[in-house]
Design goal:
By secondary structure, this protein is mainly α. It is built from nine helices and no strands.
């Protein structure tokens, strides 16, 4: 049975959505191609009609996550352009608790170094886009200063979510998110 181009594209999107969620929830190595295809509601045999390998899927899934989030369709409060709203959404219990729907950086940063070059390149491109997004949300001023603040802000945001997810004390987890948000707001208001 022949599948239309439109259906092929829809199937590919289903695979990317399923892989993106599963990789963030479980990590790259804990997810098999068969599991991705099952989550997408497709048979395992159709995988190679869309991707050359699992490494290809990993790289394309990372790029897909950042593309969806840039379009404002992703979880973790990735939509919107102003810094306060972005901070409130990113450094929230909702984002902390929904790993499969949130930022790929906070979910996969420890695993990415073990992946193929194409996956690391996709993650690097995503980092750049997020740093640029933060820089654009900062008050206008010296571009070098804005870049420095954006890099520090992005690193603090990601680090706070990673730490808040890693611990089993809900009070400390909330404190990490809240205090990081306050610290960033204080540092960026001086810009």
């Amino acid at each position: 049975m022949r599948v239309s181009r439109e259906q092929m594209q829809a199937n590919r999107l289903r695979i990317l959505d399923a892989a993106s969620r599963l990789f963030r929830e479980k990590g790259f190595d804990a997810v098999s191609v068969a599991e991705v295809m099952k989550a997408a509601g497709l048979t395992h045999g159709g995988f190679y009609g869309h991707f050359d390998s699992k490494d290809d899927l990993v790289a394309r899934a990372i790029a897909h996550i950042f593309t969806v989030q840039e379009a404002g369709q992703g979880g973790g409060g990735q939509g919107g352009g102003e810094l306060a709203g972005y901070l409130n959404a990113y450094l929230s219990p909702w984002h902390r608790d929904r790993i499969g729907e949130g930022c790929p950086t906070a979910a996969l940063v420890a695993d990415i170094r073990r992946q193929a070059a194409a996956a690391r390149t996709a993650m690097t491109d995503g980092f750049r886009s997020q740093i640029d997004r933060v820089a654009a949300a900062l008050p206008a001023g010296d571009p070098a200063q804005a870049r420095r603040q954006a890099v520090g802000t992005w690193a603090a945001m990601v680090g706070a979510v990673v730490l808040a997810r890693a611990i089993d004390d809900p009070v400390l987890s909330e404190e990490i998110l809240d205090q990081t948000r306050s610290w960033i707001e204080e540092k960026t208001s001086d810009a």
